[in-house]
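Why should sequence recovery work at all? Because a backbone constrains its sequence more than one might expect. Tight turns favour small or flexible residues, buried strands favour hydrophobic ones, and helices have their own preferences. The token representation captures these environments compactly. In the example below, the structure is given first.
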């Protein structure tokens, strides 16, 4: 029988990494609290403190490596996949990351409502709210890596770790719920010296290294006790260089990216409750930001609202291109692009292929408007129903839309690109409105004079809107095959 100590993992070095993860947009890390005041509260520990679970971050990093094609490196770092009895234990320990700053960290509540994709109106009794960590929130992230102490064995492990850290730095990993709707965007913040990572390495296979590992974080030890220096590093590419492995590359993600440049034509109102005692009865949504160098709140168009109106318009366009026998093809195409409208019993769902980022508004202002409902029978003002609204007037908007897997020119991706372009055209002409009270002219956009209303990558193209509503594209005809693919897809023809 083999002695138990001989079954221990071969660990000669331990590597410690520490950095600061900062949210670029609000984030919902869901928890369970029967006493919560919101329908979907945030995750808290036993003392009520907010944190990012290490299991959540580890799962996201592993998924990112596998998507990059680094499956072997992911298995070495994170161990065997679920259900594999012959796999190894994870060599990377990802600690829970507490929120930095005040114990009573500010959060924001955001209203949500389910929209019927066919009618475009709210579904009865489907209103909810969720608690969000505001943009600017910071977490202290810590990683501990067990190494063999031999470059040949450690190189693929370190290469995988460098690639995972680079993904965090470049904002390619979203945290929590609704990451395809603009929530959970994050990156690794730089310190005052421009460095992102603090690095320590302990050779625990030696007496000095083991003593330094034991002494880490302890006070009162003799002055000649062995210690390891703490190094700082600018980014993951410098870490890879320091470790003697290849610099991690992002690779081709095959994304179709569309940026839309428009201005608010009048006013916009994505309604929510007021923020303080002096607020109007209903105000345009402003997100909270934990950054003293900037305004405390900033006006935004949430990704959920924009995605909702785009979905409804895409379904309307697709249905127009079908007949009674092929109407189901329109629903299938829209569901594939935006995710299923509902999860049917016994059938798996899937994530939206379209990512819609939360859009910050700039150059406009909030103005208060006093209103009163009119009695439809008498034509007079309804009694005791005076209310106020703070709508957002003017300003330029840059919308960021991305379709995952649609940049390689495949038939399905081409159809999705064409459908999205048609919906965005309606948005730029003012035919498609965002937010509340579109019946009184709110929520409409117009092109910015003298500049294209949209630019795309994969393929690279520029789109301009003419006075008669037609769109010209440079290079000319670059999307012709996309519209052909859309027609074939909705007529059930072979592509």
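From this structural description, the recovered sequence reads:
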């Amino acid at each position: 029988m083999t002695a138990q100590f001989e079954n221990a993992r071969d660990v000669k070095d331990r590597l410690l990494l520490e950095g600061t993860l900062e949210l670029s947009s609000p984030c919902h890390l869901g928890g369970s609290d029967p006493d919560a005041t919101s329908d979907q509260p945030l995750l808290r520990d036993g003392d009520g403190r907010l944190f990012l679970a290490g299991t959540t971050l580890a799962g996201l990093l592993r998924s990112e490596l596998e998507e990059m094609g680094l499956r072997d490196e992911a298995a070495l770092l994170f161990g065997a996949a679920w259900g594999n009895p012959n796999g190894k234990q994870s060599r990377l320990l990802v600690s829970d990351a507490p929120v930095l700053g005040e114990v009573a960290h500010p959060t924001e509540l955001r209203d949500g409502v389910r929209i019927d994709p066919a009618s475009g109106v709210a579904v009865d009794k489907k209103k909810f709210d969720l608690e969000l960590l505001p943009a600017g929130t910071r977490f202290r992230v810590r990683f501990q890596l067990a190494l063999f102490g031999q470059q040949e064995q450690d190189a693929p492990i370190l290469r995988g770790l460098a690639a995972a850290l680079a993904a965090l730095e470049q904002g390619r990993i979203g945290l929590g719920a609704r990451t395809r709707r603009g929530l959970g965007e994050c990156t690794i913040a730089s310190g005052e010296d421009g460095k992102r990572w603090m690095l320590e390495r302990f050779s625990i296979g030696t007496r000095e290294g083991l003593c330094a590992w034991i002494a880490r974080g302890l006070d009162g030890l003799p002055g000649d006790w062995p210690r390891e220096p703490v190094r700082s590093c600018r980014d993951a590419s410098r870490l890879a260089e320091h470790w003697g492995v290849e610099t991690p590359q992002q690779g081709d993600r095959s994304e179709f990216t569309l940026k839309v440049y428009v201005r608010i034509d009048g006013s916009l109102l994505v309604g929510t409750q007021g923020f303080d005692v002096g607020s109007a009865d209903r105000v345009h949504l402003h997100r909270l930001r934990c950054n003293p160098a900037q305004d405390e709140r900033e006006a935004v168009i949430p990704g959920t609202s924009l995605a909702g109106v785009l979905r409804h318009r895409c379904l309307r366009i697709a249905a127009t291109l079908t007949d009674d026998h092929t109407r189901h093809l329109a629903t299938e195409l829209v569901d594939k692009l935006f995710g299923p409208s509902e999860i049917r019993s016994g059938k798996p769902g899937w994530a939206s292929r379209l990512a819609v980022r939360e859009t910050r508004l700039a150059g406009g202002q909030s103005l208060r408007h006093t209103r009163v409902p009119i009695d439809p029978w008498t034509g007079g003002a309804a009694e005791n129903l005076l209310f106020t609204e703070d709508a957002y007037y003017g300003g330029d908007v840059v919308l960021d839309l991305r379709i995952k897997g649609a940049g390689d020119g495949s038939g399905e991706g081409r159809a999705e690109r064409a459908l999205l372009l048609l919906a965005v055209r309606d948005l730029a002409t003012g035919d498609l409105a965002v937010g509340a009270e579109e019946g009184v002219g709110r929520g409409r956009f117009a092109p910015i004079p003298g500049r294209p209303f949209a630019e795309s990558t994969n393929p690279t193209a520029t789109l301009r809107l003419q006075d008669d509503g037609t769109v010209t594209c440079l290079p000319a005809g670059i999307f012709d095959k996309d519209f052909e693919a859309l027609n074939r897809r909705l007529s059930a023809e072979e592509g």
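A few observations help interpret the result. Residues 3-7 have pLDDT under 50 and may be disordered.
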